[in-house]
Inverse folding.
């Protein structure tokens, strides 16, 4: 059934580090899981995880979290497909992830992301994740050396 939906794998054409591809798999899971939390928890994680006050405009906040969660799930599935079946797309997808995480960091730390001084966990996670994503992108662009083989 999957062969009817998806074209053949491009893994043989990928010349970058397999570590970068495996890191993208980890990123995919780390994107899909929060997407499911945002989509399916009653408060989308806005109050229970991010600690936001849902008193005023709570329904709007929860709806925005659900919308963001839906996009996270879809982007995570694309990341997973690239990392497992279409590895020739790993550098491109890691570039998109770096751009996305860069925008998150900019908005979180430029002053517009924490007007009341409260910072959800993602504000800190992006500071750790962005350099790791950029490092994986560099690895994905470097050809594997013959002596490293499968790394």
């Amino acid at each position: 059934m999957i062969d009817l939906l998806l074209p053949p794998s491009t893994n043989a054409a990928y010349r970058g580090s397999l570590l970068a591809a495996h890191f993208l798999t980890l990123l995919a899971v780390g994107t899909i899981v929060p997407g499911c939390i945002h989509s399916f928890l009653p408060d989308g994680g806005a109050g229970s995880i991010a600690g936001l006050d849902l008193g005023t405009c709570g329904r709007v906040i929860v709806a925005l979290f659900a919308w963001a969660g839906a996009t996270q799930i879809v982007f995570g599935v694309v990341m997973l497909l690239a990392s497992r079946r279409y590895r020739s797309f790993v550098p491109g997808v890691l570039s998109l992830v770096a751009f996305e995480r860069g925008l998150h960091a900019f908005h979180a730390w430029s002053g517009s992301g924490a007007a009341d001084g409260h910072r959800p966990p993602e504000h800190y996670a992006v500071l750790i994740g962005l350099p790791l994503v950029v490092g994986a992108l560099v690895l994905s662009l470097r050809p594997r050396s013959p002596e490293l083989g499968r790394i």
